[in-house]
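Escalated from tier 1: magnesium ion holo job.
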Amino acid sequence: MDLSLLALSPPGWGGVLLAGLFSSLQLAVGGYLLGLIIGIGGASGKLYGGPIVRDLLEIYTTLVRAIPELVLILLLYYAGTDLVNQLTALLGLPSVDISGLAAGIFVIGVVQGAYSTEVLRGAIKAIPAGQIEAARAYGMSPFMTLRRITLPAMLPYAVPGLSNLWLIATKDTALLAVVGFSELTLVTRQAAGTTKHYLTFFLAAGVLYLAVTLVSNIAIGAIERRARRGMVREA
Amino acid sequence: MSDTAQAIEVRDLHKRFGPLEVLKGVSLTAKQGDVIAIIGGSGSGKSTLLRCINMLELPSAGSVTVHGETIEMKTDGHGGLIPSNRRQVQRIRTRLGMVFQSFNLWQHMTVLQNVIEVPVHVLKQPRDEAIAVAETLLKRVGLYEKRDAYPAFMSGGQQQRAAIARALAIQPLVMLFDEPTSALDPELVGEVLSVIGDLAREKRTMILVTHEMKFARQVASHVVFLHGGVIEEQGPPQAIFEDPKSERLKKFISSIH
Ligand SMILES: Nc1ncnc2c1ncn2[C@@H]1O[C@H](COP(=O)(O)OP(=O)(O)OP(=O)(O)O)[C@@H](O)[C@H]1O
Ligand SMILES: [Mg+2]
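Tier 2 regenerated the structure:
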């Protein structure tokens, strides 16, 4: 293995790989956060919404979880950008150039949102009913109850599921290689293809993905300890 | 009609759960300084009555007036009532300090955070003032040392005393207690009753659902016996416990002793 291929500056490809990693992380963070926002809305809608809202959300979560992610990503990516272009044309606006990053975040966010909805719904249902009843009894509005009581109280139940989703988000970014987004997997393939040193580059990419997971696990541990601060440790 | 000497006035309250009519026309008045004990058998509707006062349970008919202000209700189209002004309900709730059977402290907050939560976030009091008040209250209920503890790490008696401090922190017009000692181990009942007893002696208005007959007799100014969805008998504690009129009350009292 020729490690000089991984040097940060050309002719080494290290800098390119790191730039790809940075793009992957942007995608993952953006998509994950968008997914969380969709998840909070989706879980609230599923738990407290009217029958129509609940049915629509059920269709959303079922579809997203039924269709292979790669198919979804292709579908959302091309259909999504196409839709935006048709809309701007319809409104007589000049066609916009949708950034790959924005489209990628949208795609990952929509996929993650379905899973987040289910994780958060389960976590909210795990909160002892008395916690929310006390909030109501003391005059909190539904929104304040959500912000001050429901979300922090469900966190200990949600952290394991949300942590998994984050790790999945970091790896789902690789699927965006198929639409030509220069994230870590795509640039790795380019580097490997150009130099024919497949093993070196794919191992390097693997190490980078592993590093992301390891660092994430440390952060997740800290978040979990914080979320569980009010809970008695299980024996 | 806005008689503010009357802390709470419940008029002809009905509540049904589907086919089951739990309250069949209950009227109740609590004047400032009254300590009203609600007694009755299991399932007689004591909790339901208490929970209708702050609209945790929505009455099917009747009205609730707090400090001269009647809670505005409209029909929900299914033979029940819903509040027509959610803000009014929220505002009135901040005047009623509810204490639950199972404490219901917010588990992700320390004792102190529980006590200042409503003053700071709902009543918008300055945080440092709320903390000062909370610390005084916690000293009062003997929990000053526990102010930074999380509820799950405390005994039931301590949690209930913290919940009472949380209720007192909103400077409530009326305290509502729903069997505050029923979830406690017997040896912890005393510490909670002694706190509630102190509140009664300083003439705080309160409505107390309880199975502790001896305690009801000591602290109540007025006792209400619920049976079959109506007030079967009511009066001062001596009359209720020493000279019950109705057969049902006689039976209930003898079954307790
Ligand atoms: N949410 C509900 N849905 C259906 N039925 C209910 C509901 N809440 C209470 N009930 C019924 O209403 C009746 C009165 O209940 P309530 O809790 O008011 O009784 P209680 O007098 O407080 O009894 P206890 O002493 O056991 O606490 C019971 O038969 C109960 O099963
Ligand atoms: Mg009850």
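The first helix of chain A runs from residue 14 to 48.
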